[in-house]
Amino acid sequence: MLEQKEIDYERTVLIGVVNRDQTEEKVKEYLDELEFLTYTAGGEVFKRFTQKIDVPNPKTYIGSGKMKDVEAYVEEHKIGCVVFDDELSPAQQRNIEKQLRCKILDRTLLILDIFSQRAQTSYARTQVELAQYEYLLPRLTGLWTHLERQKGGIGMRGPGETEIETDRRIVRDRISLLKKKLLKIDRQMETQRGNRGALVRVALVGYTNVGKSTLMNVVSKSEVFAENKLFATLDTTVRKVVIGNLPFLLSDTVGFIRKLPTQLVESFKGTLDEVREADLLLHVVDISHPQFEEHIASVNKILGEIGSSDKKTIMVFNKIDQYEHETIEEDDLITEKTEIHYTLNEWRQTWMRKVGDRALFISALNKDNLDEFRKRVYDEVRDIHVTRFPYNNFLYPEHLDEY
Ligand SMILES: Nc1nc2c(ncn2[C@@H]2O[C@H](COP(=O)(O)OP(=O)(O)OP(=O)(O)O)[C@@H](O)[C@H]2O)c(=O)[nH]1
Ligand SMILES: [Mg+2]
Fold it and tell me: Does 292 sit in the ligand 1 pocket, CB within 6 Å?
């Protein structure tokens, strides 16, 4: 009989701060996301600590009193890992680690660790490794050196484990080597993309876990890995899709997240080229997520960073099957109607006002409204094709009823 192997989740504590820009409610939402990230990396959250401070303590990020509370908790509950919701300076990381005597991770390191765990192809692995070395370089002195060398676990995957002792020069050499390797792969991929001919290119983009791969699978009948964890997809998959008689290329790529580490955006340049070179973006949104509007803003910010803000975009609001809104009782005269009370129809109207008919509401899982989705994509792709090849649009009859 096969032995049921249980995953040993690492005992973890989260820390966030409440300040002028981050209200208590916001910090709770951010820590919810950090908890999901921790779970994806293989950790179980035992407790969250938050503190009200406007300026983080330069030595320990949170104040010394709060640090004592955390220290006591870590010791009593045998916590192996403490995760901070922001990027820590190298000095902060060292000081905190000295006091708490366990692994200290910040948000960036946690995300890098998940990427490292998830990277499947040599291309993705090279990109993640580059980002990890870039993160490591300013932190080389004394990172976890007094901890016994644990095998594996959160934050220990990748180069941190074996090469901490080596000096900066070696790390710099490694970085330039990885960059060269990436450049070579990028060139090969560029040639591949060039060979694809004149087909219109459509890219799925969006926050992580919104359903991009699920939608890709439904539309293209492919089998891209989809899972309810963050960053299920790291590599780009491209499929030829035909709607009606119109063929085009659809790509599914890495999801975005709030505060995506800059090292990652930079080293994933090659993967993100697919987005940069697309003719049309399908911005997928998980409308059932309470912070979906903030997710849209984060995605738009990253699209700006990679120079893709001005692309033609269709907003695809996914997971409508899971959408819930709060209701106000009829005799309740105090509660003001806000966005949390919107029905799907009200969201539809709001977005129609913003982007016209470039907003769609679907469920990729239940295949709801997919006909409408196909028709919209068909229309946009046809428009692009006709503009590009004005004398070659014989492919597309005017009245096409079936998609
Ligand atoms: N309820 C519901 N769940 C969905 C829907 N579409 C996708 N999901 C689920 O959402 C989770 C994430 O789906 P993915 O397709 O992996 O999402 P993704 O955007 O590709 O995620 P990353 O690759 O991690 O960025 C999976 O558990 C899916 O089954 C939907 O329409 N409704
Ligand atoms: Mg995916």
Answer: no
Q: Which ligand is nearest to the Cα of residue 208, counting in written order? A: 1
Give strand pairing partners of 17: 51
Instruction: Measure the CA–CA gap between 84 and 192, rounded to whole angstroms.
Output: 41
Q: Who's near 200: CB < 8 A, 6+ residues apart?
A: 248, 249, 279, 280, 381, 384, 385, 388
Strand ordering across the sheet containing 201-206: 237-243, 246-252, 201-206, 280-286, 312-318, 359-361
pLDDT surpassing 70 at residue 45: yes
Residue nearest atom 32 of ligand 1, based on CA coordinates: 319
Domains and CATH numbers, the chain: 10-118 (3.40.50.11060), 197-402 (3.40.50.300)
CA proximity to 100, closest of 85, 82, 118, 125: 82
In this prediction the pTM is 0.86
Contact 96/83 with Cβ under 8 angstroms? no
Q: How far apart (Å, rounded) are the C-alpha atoms in residues 174 and 166?
A: 11
Phi, psi of 318 (to 5 degrees): -100, 175
Residue 159 beta carbon below 6 angstroms from any ligand 1 atom: no
Q: Quick: pLDDT tens for 170-189.
A: 888 999 999 999 999 888 88
Distances, alpha carbon 333 to alpha carbons 328, 336, 337, 341, in Å: 9, 8, 10, 15
The model's pLDDT over 260-283, given as tens digits with 9 standing for 90+, comes to 888 888 888 888 888 999 999 999
Residue 18: its H or E element: strand 10-18
- The pLDDT score that the predictor gives to residue 105 is 94
- How far apart CA 111 and CA 106 sit, in angstroms, is 9
**Ligand 1 atom with minimal separation from the 254 CA:** 25
